[in-house]
Amino acid sequence: MTSTSSTRGSGAALWVFLLVGVGAPALAMYGLHPMLVSAGLPPDLSAVLLLALAVATCIAVVEAIRARDRARVAREAVDERQSMQDVIDSMPDSLLVLDTNGRVEFCNLTFAQRTGCESPAEWVGQGLDALVGDVRPEWYTTLLDAGAVLGWEIDFRTKTGSAIKLKTSGHRRGDGLGIVLVGRDNLEITRLSSELQRTTARLEDSERFFHELFDAMTDPITVLSPEYEILQANRQARLIFGKDLIGRPCYRTFRMRDEPCVECPARETFLSGQSTSVEHRIFGNTITRISTYPLFGKDGQLRAVINHKRDVTKERQLEDLKAAFLAAISHELRTPLTSLMGFNKLNLRRLVRQVRPHLAEAPDEARTALQNVLSDMEVMATEGERLGRLVNDVLDLSKLEAGKLRLNFEAVDVPTIVTGAVHATAALYSGRDLLVIPDLPEMCPECWGDRDRLSQVLVNLVSNAIKYTERGEIRIALAVGPKELTVSVRDPGAGIPPDEVPRIFERFRQAGDAQKGRPSGTGLGLPICRELIHLHRGRIWVETKLGVGSTFSFTIRRADAVDPAERALDLRQTSSAGG
């Protein structure tokens, strides 16, 4: 249709060209008119000859253009026919077109290959006798009478004389000048059917395995929709909450409420797209941990949430026993330790004020012995303080791991915490060629967290930076993001060896243990920082280069960006930890 319209348009343009073009050559050739007249031709004859010559020239040009257009249309027709041939040849089914005499007018490459031919052209012109071994088979008669056949088993001859059976359907062409046949190899149908059956069997086995694995879980597990309806439930969930819980709202099934809970962990997961875990105390002393996990579709959209409940009462009882044991041990350690440190400091001061002056004229051995005693007592004081820090750190870490550490969430001014950390660590770097410089923006929104615990984290990071830096500037930077604040402590110290970076937040691990002359620590500061930041739903990491320095950074949520549901959840967890 496109080629015909194009040809008609070109023809109209040619006639316009002819009408316009006759005048131009005529005018150009009219310059020859005086020469022809001077040669003896009559003026009228000269004009007619020149006009005829112009018209002949234009007609020749028009014919040349028409020939070019015809060649282009022919090429396009060949290309379209080849494209159609390629499409037909790529069909998995055999296709034949017979004329009114039952001779093959066309077939695709699939049929040619199945019958042992290299090209469809080998079948063109062949009759029914060569095609099926019968000049007028039954199916052919039926097709001519009824106009169509469906699902006939037809034996087609191959190039070698054998036969292949194709399940064939056909119908008369719309112009009545032949028939069209489409055949499919029974072996191919059988193979596809077998493959479908195997795939279906594998799918059923996989589904059965999933359900058996799902039901084998000893904890109640359900799958919730975005509308909080229960989509799936394992055997344990059905035993506890009833067999008819599928399709029921989870808040009505689990909590006997008429609307979703504000502190619901599934609600939190639907809002944030992240896993959530909370603990509820129900039925007296029974403690249940509820963990929810997001389920995403292929398009990346959150489709459902897995709700996993586990009775952690015994675990919490053991943790309570552990915490009570550690508290008792720490108390028993702190009491004598406080006495030892107190008497040590008192005796040290007595020796310096009352004994040393009387030994000014004593023998060198006595003065040396006194100096050794004083040095030993100073070591005792230092080690006593380190032991006290170790006891406090162990208690803090045990509370964190047991989930017993209470966070008092509120809106906190971060620059105030930074300034407090600088003042708290001033004694560690005073008198040294070292500065701690806050690098704060003019305007900074408040964060959402526990003021004391965030101060503990920042003081620990600054203390570590001071510990491993000889000279230079330690900078505390604060970056403001749309939903969170990033606090960074950058030092120009020795850096951390690459093989120690992955384990830097492990318990009792210190960077640069092999470096001599460094102040010793408990190795629990960074693990405590990590747990505290995780409780604030933030991230903590380190960027370091050996010999250049390290940057410890952590994120904390902005108070004005905290969702009301998250705020309520934080406050509820605070109350639970306090109770």
CATH homologous superfamily of the largest domain - what is it? Histidine kinase-like ATPase, C-terminal domain
What kind of oligomer do you see?
single chain
Low-pLDDT sequence parts: 1-10, 12-24, 513-517
CATH architecture of the largest domain: 2-Layer Sandwich
When the domains are counted, the total is: 5
In the sheet with the most strands, the strands line up as: 2-1-5-4-3
The major beta sheet can be summarized as: 5 strands, antiparallel
β-strand percent reads 15-25%
Structural class: alpha+beta
State the end-to-end CA separation. 83 Å
Per CATH, the class of the largest domain reads Alpha Beta
Overall body shape:
elongated
Averaging pLDDT over every residue, what do you get? 82
The number of strands is 17
CATH topology of the largest domain: Heat Shock Protein 90
Work out the radius of gyration.
47 Å
User: Percent of residues in helical segments?
Assistant: 40-55%
SS field, number of helical segments: 17
What does this structure look like?
The chain has 579 residues and is an alpha+beta fold. It folds into five domains: 2-87; 91-190, Beta-Lactamase; 222-311, PAS domain (Beta-Lactamase, 2-Layer Sandwich), CATH 3.30.450.20; 322-400; 407-578, Histidine kinase-like ATPase, C-terminal domain (Heat Shock Protein 90, 2-Layer Sandwich). Helices cover 50% and strands 20% of the residues. The chain contains 17 helices and 17 strands. The strands form four sheets. A five-stranded antiparallel beta sheet has the order 2-1-5-4-3. A five-stranded antiparallel beta sheet has the order 7-6-10-9-8, with helices on both faces. A five-stranded mixed beta sheet has the order 12-14-15-17-16. It is elongated and about 150 Å long. The relative contact order is 0.05. The model is unreliable at 1-10, 12-24 and 513-517 (pLDDT under 50).
